[in-house]
Amino acid sequence: MSLKEYRKKRDFSKTPEPEGKRKLIFVVQKHAASHLHYDFRLEVDGVLKSWAVPKGPSMNPADKRLAIHVEDHPLDYASFEGIIPAGNYGAGTVMVWDEGLYSAYNSHSDSETEKLMREGLRKGTLHFILLGHKLKGEFSLVRMGNEDKQWLLIKMDDQYASKKDITKQDLSVLTKRTLPEISK
Ligand code: MN
Q1: 54 CA from centroid of ligand 1 (Å)
Q2: How many CB atoms sit inside 10 A of residue 109's CB?
Q3: Ligand 1 centroid to residue 23 C-alpha, Å
Q4: Separation of 125 CA from ligand 1 center, angstroms?
Q5: Which protein residues have their CB within 5 A of the ion that is ligand 1?
Q6: Which of 12, 24, 33, 155 is the most exposed, fewest CB within 10 Å of its CB?
């Protein structure tokens, strides 16, 4: 069952769980394809909006990491870790490098987050907060041109900002395996 369906099935007027409780997910999958990259994905309207980040995310606000906007992925893909066989699109090994919840900056509910993300995708500026195992705090994704697929992923300066290379934390958050261990 998708999170969307789960939410539809809840009657928030009859349960103590507030509608504003955050359930939107993000995931970063380290992907050893023809070129190693990190797929950064945010749940919006039942799909995973996706960017391929060649150098991976950074916690240093001075870094601006190129993020190529790629096709949406199904929500179920967020937990995929394993091998995409040779000959298939994206062939190679996939690790769930980080995952967690996210919300749009200054949003008060998931529905408000999704509205802000839809607007941001049109305008080319997204501002959000990640609550992952590795990635935490405020980030921005900024499009470099009007029609361009090229965006920049940037850490905003907050208490989680750091000059330490976060990509050195190199184990799956799902299985604690390295990429070579996953590809065995
Ligand atoms: Mn990929």
Answers
A1: 9
A2: 16
A3: 24
A4: 22
A5: 31, 39
A6: 12
Q: Distance between CA atoms of 110 and 136, rounded to whole angstroms?
A: 18
At 72, list the tokens: 């949406």
pTM: 0.88
